[in-house]
Amino acid sequence: MPLTQEQKKQYKSIGHHLKPVLTVADNGLTEGVLAELERALSDHELIKIKLNILERESRLEAIAQLCKAGKADLVQVIGKMALIYRKNAKVNKQLSNVHRFN
């Protein structure tokens, strides 16, 4: 289910204070990147990703692939940073960025 505008607004305000937990380079989505994406989304629900890709179209394509691979929703893209969210059924309130900032 897509995020509502109110949810996006809330997640953007939380994401503003986050540091990137995942960096994607020109070599794309390797197994290591996908494994780290899965771990980060499971632990934190809301994560910031830095994309070290020069071309804008390539960055947007990589973001779409990350969202699809992680079954996550895109919250925001600013320059080379993306903020994505995936709800976790078994949330750890100590690790979840959403629950820690509420």
TrEMBL record:
Any Pfam family hit: CRS1_YhbY
Top-level taxon of the source organism: Bacteria
Keyword terms of this UniProt record: RNA-binding
SMART domains hit by this protein: CRS1_YhbY
Record-annotated CRM domain positions: 1-97
Name of protein: YhbY family RNA-binding protein
Protein's organism: Pseudomonas protegens
